[in-house]
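One chain given next:
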Amino acid sequence: MGGTKPGAPVTLRMIADEAGVSVSTVSRVLSSEGAEAHRWAAAGTVELIRELARKRDYRRNPQAVGLRTNRSGLVGVLVPRLQDFVLATIYEGIEEAATENGLSTFVTNSLDVPANQVARTEMMLQRRVDGMIFGDAHIGDGFLDSIAARGVPFTLVSRRVGTHVSATCDDLLGGRLVGEHLVASGRRRLGVLAGLHFASTAQERTAGAVDAFRAAGLEVPDDRVVWGPFDAAGGRRAAEQLLAAEPFPDAIFATNDFAAIGALGVLRDRGLRVPDDVALVGYNDTPLAAEILVPLTTVRSPMHRMGRRGVELLIEVLGGAAPESERLAPELVVRQSG
């Protein structure tokens, strides 16, 4: 397999690519005995997959195999909204890594409502999931502490809380990159569309940008930090509040690209030019960011990788390990908006 590092473990993905089939097909074939494998692929394909596994000395992940012994092989995933591009991309990473490790996932939405978090977690536990991945953690809520106290194995993605094992973007750094960029480009009056106050993503991105301005001797007044939903409608409402009185900010940082797009509409309606009058910066680098009328400066977060690492850390937890949380590196993407 060209490009594989010597000594690197062979994965289901490598075998799938060489056989020209999906990862799930390889997983099912190698998990089946004898003729049962023909449920999943034609006889020739089954033989090819098995031969590649023998030639490559494929070894199934022992922790994942252990999960499947007298267990469901299921991982429950709870997110705020799967219609959200960021969470959908994270879930793609979760599903991909789970499949490669012979696990299945099912996902449901909490809508960031605490009662839903409780009810839907209980539903998943009743279905005998082996572990859970939460993408909707709330700061200041003891729910996850209570789940940990019950001995339920879980990891967090996207947001982090306390000392629970998580795979997240380094959002404090991401916010600081935005603040430093805006200061360096001559902006002096920052306004922040901060997002949901109980989300670590919102709090840390906001804190990073405000800290960068403070380090440059520029204070960001409390009334220039507006909390609200991460979507375009929330961004519009927050931007209207931010622009309710002069002097207007000369830079707006939205902690989510969709909120930035909502703000862009308000700036247009007010006759304010981007970036001449007001610089505008988003976060996550969703596909729309580069395609809107004024391409959006934003922070690229490793969404897909985050999901994969959430699964890999969960497998370690399920195997009895105590892995460290990971904070993946963000990247500032400078475009025309600021």
